[in-house]
Each structure stands twice: as C-alpha cells, then as structure tokens.
Design brief:
The chain is mainly alpha-helical and 103 residues long. The protein has three helices and no strands. The longest helix is centred in the last third of the chain and has 29 residues. It starts with 24 loop residues before the first helix and ends with a helix.
C-alpha cells in the first residue's frame, strides 16, 4: 500500500506511515470498528443499565469529536446519539411520572 500523504510504499499492516507520521487507512478502519462496537454496546446497555449506556454514548461522541468525524460512518454517530436520547427521554418520563404521582 502507499501512503496517502507522502506517496511512499508502506506495509499493509502499518497504522502510521513511518516516513511522514500520518495515520493510514488501516488505523482509521480500526478506530471506526472500535467506535461502532462501543456504539452498539451503548444502545444495548441503554435498555438494561441506562446510565452506563448513556455514559458510553457520550464517550463515543467525545471520541468522535476528538478524532474528527471525517471518515466515521454515520451509523456510529447515529447509534451514539440514539443511546443518549433514549436515556434522556426515559429520565424525563420518570420525572413527569414522579411529579404526577406525588403532586
């Protein structure tokens, strides 16, 4: 494979170009796979342990912001936002129910 920045030939397994230090496609793909797994876990945990799913969703969104969203598939972003919104709605409904019961 060739580096997209400097054009020199590098190993197919390289995560960073040894010549210029730029991330390769392999490293971007690995990061996206990790973020996708974390997003799926956030969605699943939202239904069983909501606060953990909420926190994991926020962590994924923060990592995306830190790394930049270029190259990140939209499904990863959407799943993370969904986890945060689902828990937010659940908290809001719980507050409304508590107010209705005790007021």
């Amino acid at each position: 494979m060739f580096c997209s920045n400097c054009g020199k030939e590098i190993s197919d397994k390289a995560y960073i170009c040894p010549n210029c230090g730029v991330k390769t496609n392999a490293s971007v793909d690995a990061e996206n796979d990790q973020l996708r797994s974390m997003s799926i876990a956030a969605i699943v945990l939202t239904f069983f342990v909501p606060i953990v799913g909420f926190i994991l969703g926020i962590v994924v969104l923060a990592k995306m912001k830190q790394n930049g969203t270029i190259g990140v598939p939209s499904d990863v972003r959407d799943m993370s936002i969904s986890a945060v919104v689902i828990v937010g709605i659940g908290i809001l409904l719980t507050i409304i129910l508590m107010l209705a019961l005790f007021c």
